[in-house]
Design a protein that fits this description.
It is a single chain. The protein has 2 domains: 192 residues, Periplasmic binding protein-like II (D-Maltodextrin-Binding Protein, domain 2, 3-Layer(aba) Sandwich), CATH 3.40.190; 219 residues, Periplasmic binding protein-like II (D-Maltodextrin-Binding Protein, domain 2, 3-Layer(aba) Sandwich). 45% of the residues lie in helices and 15% in strands. Strands 1, 2, 3, 4, 5, 6, 7, 8, 9 and 10 form a 10-stranded mixed β-sheet that branches. Strand 1, helix 2 and strand 2 form a beta-alpha-beta unit.
């Protein structure tokens, strides 16, 4: 009897060892555009997962943000993409799901931790299928050098008039570039420019949904006015801003040479690690004192499963962990400014992140106007808005011309009735 039990134990141990050996060879690769987060994943997120799942190894392999969509599409088409795919919100990822390149994760254990609203950016239009695990949203506003503001004796502005008066004072002083932003890469002109200040003009979700419904157009005043405001930014952006890249702008601010940075909350960790001054933040200024304020509170990133992955089970194990409160807490504090979408309490430690997420209690939240439905055709409204925003700031296109071109492009393929 004892011999039989011993033999059985040895056999089970051998089987477990064999199983463990096979699983130990499972390596998952994550595709992402968040190259700024490489250290965060390598030093904090992945070690936390691997400590619980030593049989699964994870590699974070990011691509430059501006190249990600095209590079990912090429890899998926060629069958060379990683097992896990960072999902941009709405149309870009929905298109991949419709091409059957992202797996259906509706029934994934852990998905119950997200409300239908939190899943919206990565679900089909009718909400019946979800194809990525929501990770985080980001908020837009302005970051500023507190030391510079103290030296100049100025305060964060609340209205548009105060904003430009502040820029004038900083420019007149000459010590700092008033606004750290360039237009060479284009996307930040739209993301941290037009989409940052725009919701205060088109009244957030009210205007965005009206644009989808076709009851408003990009040539309407509420959509042209943000371009008119952007057109005034150029003189405050420093010499040669037209050739200034996104990393150039980041460096200009963190090196203490610029006073204000039109920002997304995702910059917090990078900026606090590099700057030797305290960073503050203020909301996009409203047009007039007392106006309702709106803030771009955008579902930004999720994680999906490459439908062609040969490691689907291990990948689902990882994705279920990403859907957990444990991951949400690690991610929110390892990458401050990425605010979890999970329907569970998460304690934030970073003071600047807590300040910015507090804007949700002050202002009405909205998402970027071009992301849902309106960028499914050609020309792509999101990419066209990049160019238009840069051109308006550069002075090569008037606000009215930019708006007219965008609406003409949208009209060429989008019929509002099709969205109903």
């Amino acid at each position: 009897m004892t011999t039989t039990i011993l033999k059985a134990s040895v056999a089970l141990a051998a089987l477990a060892a064999l199983s463990g050996s096979a699983l130990a060879q499972t390596t998952l690769t994550i595709e992402s555009w968040r190259n700024d987060d490489l250290a965060t994943w390598q030093d904090k997120i992945i070690p936390a997962f691997e400590a619980q799942h030593p049989d699964i190894k994870v590699t974070f392999a990011p691509t430059a943000p501006t190249e990600y969509n095209s590079a990912l599409a090429a890899k998926l088409d060629a069958g060379s993409a990683g097992d896990l795919v960072a999902c941009r919100p709405f149309d870009a990822s929905l298109g991949l799901f419709q091409k059957k390149q992202l797996a259906d994760l509706t029934s994934l254990p852990g998905m119950e931790n997200f409300t239908p609203a939190a899943r919206t950016a990565w679900s089909t239009d009718d909400g019946s299928q979800t194809f990525c695990v929501p990770m985080a949203a980001v908020l837009h506003g302005f970051m500023y050098n507190k030391t510079a503001f103290e030296e100049l004796g100025v305060q964060p502005p609340k209205t548009e008039a105060e904003f430009f008066a502040l820029l004038d004072k900083i420019k007149e002083n000459g010590t700092y570039v008033p606004l750290a932003m360039g237009t060479k890469d284009q996307w930040e002109a739209a993301t941290m420019g037009y989409q940052n200040i725009g919701p205060n003009y088109w009244k957030g979700e009210e205007g965005r949904k009206a644009l989808i419904a076709g009851t408003q157009k990009l040539t309407d005043p509420d959509w042209v006015k943000p371009f008119e405001t952007l057109a005034k930014w150029g003189p405050y952006m420093g010499d040669g801003f037209q050739a200034q890249t996104y990393p150039d702008s980041q460096n200009l601010f963190t090196l203490g040479r610029a006073a204000i940075y039109p920002a997304g909350s995702w910059e917090i960790a990078t900026f606090e690690a590099q700057a030797d001054f305290e960073i503050g933040a203020f909301l996009p200024p409203v047009q007039n004192a007392g106006d309702t304020c709106y803030v771009s509170d955008h579902p930004d990133i999720a994680l999906g499963l490459n439908a062609a992955s040969k490691n689907a089970e291990a990948a689902k194990t990882f994705l279920s962990w990403v859907a957990s409160p444990e991951f949400a807490t690690i991610y929110a504090n390892a990458a401050p400014g990425f605010f979890p979408l999970i329907d569970k309490p998460v304690t934030l430690e970073n003071a600047l992140a807590k300040e910015i997420v507090g804007w949700r209690g002050t202002c009405q939240s909205s998402i970027r106007s071009t992301y849902q439905i309106l960028s499914r055709g050609t020309p792509n409204l999101e990419n066209e808005t990049w160019t238009a925003s840069a051109n308006v700031i550069n002075g090569t296109e008037t606000p009215a011309q930019a708006a007219e071109k965008l609406q003409k492009g949208l009209d060429s393929w989008y019929k509002p009735a099709a969205a109903k």
